[in-house]
Write a structure and sequence with these properties.
single chain; about 400 residues; alpha/beta; 8-stranded mixed beta sheet; 11 strands; transmembrane; Cell_div_FtsQ/DivIB_C; POTRA_FtsQ_type; POTRA; Cell division protein DivIB
Length: about 400
C-alpha cells in the first residue's frame, strides 16, 4: 500500500510543471516552519503551567507552627511579594506569547502576500499553435463583426439611383422595383437580378435593366427604353408603336405628335408585331421615309400592305416579304420620275399612279398572248408527230 501511494505521489509530481513543484515545496516548507513554531509555543506554555502548579503546591505544603510566629508573620508579609512576583511573571509570559502570536500572524500574512505576488513563469507558445488557432480567431472575429453590423442601422442604409429613363418616371421605377427601404443592403445586392426582372415586367417601355452596386451604400440602376417606330391610328387617336413590336395603350395628344412619323392604320397586334420584326432588316433611310401603312389584302395575299412614302410613291408588298423585297426600293427609287406604284406582291415592277387599269389590261393581254402562243406551239408539235405516225401506214399499203 505504501509503495502504491509513493508511486502515485511520484507520478503526480511528474505531471506537475516546474513552477508548480517549486510552489508546492515552498508551501510545505512554510507549513513545517509554522508547525515547528507552534510546537515551541505549546512547549513554553506547558512549562509555564507546570511552574505555576509547582509554586501553588509549595505554598499549600507550608504549615504554620506556634514556635515560629515571627517566621509565619514574615511568611505572611512575604507571601504578597511572592504572589506579586508570580503575577508579574505570568503577565510577562503571556505578553511574550501574545507577541509571538502577533509575529507569527504577520509572518503568515507576508507569506500569503508573497504567494499572491508570485508570478507564473511565461511559457513560450510555439508558432504552429498560433497557425492552428488563426482560422478560429478570424472566423469568430468575422462572425462578431457581421452580427454587430446587422444590429446597427447601417445595415439598412442605401441609396438607389435610376439612369437612362426618359418616359418612365423615377417614382414608377421605384415602386415597381419593390425594393423596401427596410431591406438589408446585403439582401438587396443578393436579389438584384430579381429586382431587374420586376422592372422589366412593370412597363412595356423598358427594354433592359442593369443593377450595379457601388461601395458603400449606392445602387445604380441603368434603364434602357424601347424607341418609337410609329403610331397606331385608331378612331382619330394615336398610340405609340415601340421597336419591340408592341403598342402602348396610352393615347398621345395630337399636338405632341412629330411632323415626320409613320402611321399604321391596322390594329391587329399579331400583324403589327410581324411588321415591326420585318422592318428590322430594312435600311433606316427607307424606314424614315415611310409615312403611312394601310392593310390592303388581295384575293391571293392576305397580309398585303400599301406603304406610302414621303415622296408620294406607294409600295405594295406582303408583310411576310418586307425584309426580303423592300430593300430593293433604294435602287428603284432614283429611276422613278413621277409618283409611282412599286408592286412587290408577285414580282417587282412599277407603274405610274392612275394607270393601274391599263397595266392590268396589258398584263391580261400579255397573259392571253402567252397562252395562245403556248397552245400554238403545242399544236405544231403534235402535227408533225401525227404525220410521222401516218407515213409508215402508207408505206405498208404500198
Amino acid at each position: 500500500m505504501k509503495k502504491s501511494k509513493e508511486d502515485k505521489q511520484e507520478t503526480a509530481q511528474l505531471s506537475l510543471s516546474e513552477w508548480q513543484v517549486r510552489n508546492k515545496e515552498y508551501l510545505e516548507k512554510k507549513a513545517q516552519e509554522k508547525a515547528k513554531k507552534q510546537a515551541e509555543l505549546e512547549k513554553k506554555r506547558a512549562e509555564l503551567e507546570q511552574k505555576k502548579e509547582e509554586m501553588k503546591a509549595e505554598l499549600e505544603n507550608q504549615k504554620p507552627s506556634n514556635e515560629k510566629d515571627i517566621v509565619s508573620e514574615e511568611i505572611d508579609t512575604d507571601s504578597p511579594t511572592s504572589e506579586e512576583e508570580t503575577a508579574v511573571q505570568d503577565s510577562e509570559s503571556e505578553s511574550e506569547v501574545e507577541e509571538q502570536d502577533e509575529a507569527e500572524a504577520q509572518d503568515q500574512e507576508q507569506d500569503e502576500e508573497e504567494v499572491e505576488q508570485l508570478e507564473l513563469p511565461k511559457v513560450p507558445i510555439e508558432k504552429i499553435h498560433w497557425y492552428r488557432a488563426l482560422p478560429v480567431l478570424v472566423t469568430s472575429s468575422l462572425v462578431f463583426l457581421a452580427s454587430l453590423y446587422f444590429l446597427t442601422p447601417l445595415a439598412t442604409m442605401k441609396t438607389i439611383e435610376f439612369t437612362g429613363n426618359k418616359v418612365v418616371s423615377q417614382e414608377e421605377l421605384r415602386s415597381s422595383s419593390k425594393i423596401d427601404q427596410r431591406d438589408y443592403t446585403v439582401t438587396v445586392y443578393k436579389n438584384r437580378h430579381h429586382y431587374e426582372k420586376n422592372l422589366k415586367a412593370s412597363s412595356p417601355w423598358i427594354e433592359n435593366v442593369e443593377m450595379t452596386y457601388q461601395f458603400p451604400l449606392t445602387f445604380k440602376i441603368d434603364v434602357q427604353e424601347y424607341g418609337i417606330l410609329g403610331y397606331l391610328q385608331k378612331d382619330s387617336k394615336y398610340y405609340p408603336i415601340l421597336t419591340s413590336g408592341e403598342y402602348v395603350k396610352n393615347e398621345v395628344a395630337a399636338d405632341a405628335l412629330p411632323e415626320e412619323r409613320m402611321d399604321v392604320t391596322f390594329s391587329d397586334a399579331g400583324l403589327i408585331k410581324e411588321f415591326v420584326q420585318q422592318l428590322k432588316n430594312v435600311p433606316d433611310s427607307i424606314k424614315k421615309s415611310m409615312r403611312r401603312v394601310d392593310l390592303t389584302p388581295s384575293k391571293v395575299t392576305e397580309d398585303l400592305v400599301t406603304i406610302t412614302m414621303s415622296d408620294e410613291h406607294q409600295i405594295l408588298v406582303p408583310i411576310s416579304h418586307i425584309a426580303k423585297k423592300l430593300p430593293y426600293y433604294e435602287g428603284i427609287h432614283p429611276q422613278l420620275e413621277v409618283p409611282s406604284v412599286i408592286d412587290m406582291e408577285a414580282g417587282i415592277f412599277s407603274y405610274a399612279q392612275g394607270t393601274e387599269n391599263e397595266v392590268i389590261h396589258e398584263a391580261s393581254n400579255d397573259a392571253q398572248d402567252t397562252e395562245s402562243s403556248t397552245q400554238h406551239a403545242e399544236q405544231s408539235t403534235e402535227h408533225p408527230a401525227q404525220s410521222q405516225a401516218e407515213k409508215p401506214e402508207i408505206s405498208e399499203n404500198n
